[in-house]
Amino acid sequence: MDNNLEKLNAAIAATKLIQDGMIVGLGTGSTVAFFLEALAERIRQEKLHIIGVTTSSKTELSARQLGIDMMDIDDVPVIDITVDGADEVDHNMNGIKGGGAAFLMEKIVAKNSKRVVWIVDSQKIHDNLGSMPLPVEVVPFGSGKLIAEFKRSHLYPTLRKDNGVPVITDMGHYIVDLALKRIDQPYELEKYLDGQIGVVEHGLFLDVADEIIIGTIDGVRRLISEA
Ligand code: 5RP
């Protein structure tokens, strides 16, 4: 199914949350691409003063090409709101990110944002996380040993490759995808992964999103955190 209309509707709804003078974290992915275009249009039409903070080299390039002013995360006092996509979302508003290999920067930007909004199409909503492989960003040195450890722990790891060559993230690391199929204990898994030497970050985003805008064919639905 072509879900571009759902992505577009979610993206347009998110642009309405942006106010003049805001510093905005800009996520990565095809849904965010719609958001960047809609945001750039609003900036042009309403002459808004918006500063973007990137989550990937790809988004940095697209945002600059669209005329959005960008600053380094370390040069802004605080990020008012971050708008990002997600690969999977459950009913507790937890998610998996990293299909686009940008989740390390995405998580750093999210953790430094006052508000995190995800924009997703309706196919991203699942009862349980894990139907897509969980990405883990790892240091290349010793990654074979870490993959062996993941195998011993029955996490079904695969080193992500492109044309037979390991994918290198913007931060210079490898990605290992864990084909878990279903994650029943996300917090335990998070603790395990956080404790592994050589793991830089993982794509489990637990208790990160404040609002999730789910695009539908004719509008949006919203999940809003009560925390
Ligand atoms: C990149 C991500 C993206 O947000 C995620 O992959 C969703 O992408 P898309 O909007 O193209 O479905 O986490 O690291």
Description:
With 227 residues, this protein is of the alpha/beta class. It has two domains: 2-127 and 206-224, Rossmann fold, CATH 3.40.50.1360; 134-201, ACT domain (Alpha-Beta Plaits), CATH 3.30.70.260. It has helices at 4-15, 30-46, 57-65, 103-111, 143-152, 186-194, and strands at residues 23-26, 51-54, 69-70, 81-84, 88-89, 95-96, 116-121, 134-138, 157-159, 161-162, 165-166, 174-178, 199-202, 204-205, 211-216, 219-224. Helix 1 (4-15) packs across helix 2. The two termini are 34 Å apart. The mean pLDDT is 97. The structure holds ribulose-5-phosphate. Residues 27-31, 84-87, 97-103, 106 line the site of ribulose-5-phosphate (5RP). Ribulose-5-phosphate binds next to helix 2 and helix 4.
List keywords for this structure.
227 residues; 29% helix; 2 domains; Alpha-Beta Plaits; Rossmann fold; binds ribulose-5-phosphate; alpha/beta
Q: Class of the largest domain in CATH? A: Alpha Beta
Instruction: Count every helix, treating DSSP H or I runs of 4 or more residues as helices.
Output: 6
Gyration radius, in Å: 17 Å
Strand content: 25-35%
Helix percentage? 25-40%
The chain-level structural class is alpha/beta
Strands of the largest sheet, in order across it?
A: 3-2-1-4-7-15-16
